[in-house]
Write a structure and sequence with these properties.
Elements lengths: L1 H13 L16 E2 L10 H18 L3 H4 L5 H12 L7 E3 L3 H15 L4 E5 L4 H13 L6 E5 L4 H4 L4 E7 L11 H10 L3 E5 L11 H4 L3 E4 L14 E4 L43 H12 L6 H21 L7 E2 L11 E5 L3 H10 L2 E2 L1 E3 L3 E5 L7 H17 L15
Parallel strand pairs: 1-11, 3-4, 3-5, 5-6, 6-7
Antiparallel strand pairs: 2-8, 7-8, 9-10, 10-13, 12-13
The chain binds pyridoxal-5'-phosphate.
Amino acid sequence: MLEMLEEARLLDNRDPLNHVKTQFDTPKNTIYLDGNSLGPLSYPVNLRVQEVMNEQWGQDLIKSWNQHNWIHKPQQVGDSIGKLIGAASGQTICCDSISVNLFKVLSVALNTHEGSTVLSTKDNFPTDLYMVQGLKALFSARNIELKLVAEKQLEKHIDEDIAVVMVSQVNFRSGALLDIPKLTKRAHENNAAIIVDVAHSAGALPVHLDRWKVDFAVGCTYKYLNAGPGAPAFLYVAKRHLGASAQPLYGWMGHAEPFEFSPDYQPAADITQYLTGTPPIISMAATEAAVSIFESVSIDEIRDKSIKLGLAFERAMETSGLDQRFQSISPSSPKQRGSQLSYEHPEAFAICQAWIAEGVIADFRAPNYLRIGFAPLYLSFEDIFHAVEKLEKIMRTKAYNAPKFQAKNKVT
Ligand SMILES: *Cc1c(COP(=O)(O)O)cnc(C)c1O
């Protein structure tokens, strides 16, 4: 084990991203393996939020919409996020939540493509599937169908009956990574649109929406982008679809001339049509500062380190014999998974609670998965070593059997 600790320190010394973690304000004695659920606070975000609150809102009040350019923040922040997902400017906008943004792009995709079947996967993130079910209930006359298949069967099921393929690039439970270029090609060969949810990819691995010719995408900023709880999400619409059909949440911010206060809706011709109401300026400022941290690092370095952190975790699990006690549900090849590993164990919930009590924060996902996220900007190889060391102790002493680790809260 000592050898592994030395090796971890060596890897940290050689890590080109090692310096970035000083930008994060994570609590002492905590190893955070949950950045794929809620990224931590950083100093740039903390400072920017205070500046926007105290200097802009506090001092300049409503003048700030022009003076501090608040009105253009959704596009500006959208464009900076666009750089992380391979989108040229003018196609990404920061607003609302993934759920609401999916409603918008699903509506446009269904309106502009023949057929009424949306193809997705059984274990896609539930809110994505719920949005299709809601559209189906709202437009009962259109007979919208939601067809769900296993990930491995996706490609086979893309045929001319499909109007829209809606997938998450990385599976939130298993971490399995889909081949988006291949699925996009197949969708287009069958005149279908593809909507990609990049919630678990933006800021964690290379995404090339323009190059892959993806039609629409959605994603959030509070996971690997570290913009804070409930920070606004984003959506991407390929240039060729802009202006073709308006998204149906006709809000004044998506009007061509919002400040004419006309009683009639006139859709903006550009990506701002995808806005609905007033942007949440304070959390959008947090998003802008959080995304700026990525300007000094390359996404390839992030991906490289993410893979190495995952491999280091797996190796430590093997060395301590824990691989015999936990069943991995993630693909075995690092190239086929995102930035996380998931393990099945009947006591996963209590184990996760006991681990948290030891200062290692990971995630539990129903029914019995322990989910470990590797966020390369602030995690070290030494963190991985200590996390597994603590898990080994919990399993050896069966500390998770304590009643206090068994009680579930509303958020798990
Ligand atoms: C986190 C996540 C969401 C969350 O959606 P919100 O509406 O922003 O709460 C949606 N889809 C996927 C794939 C996710 O991982």
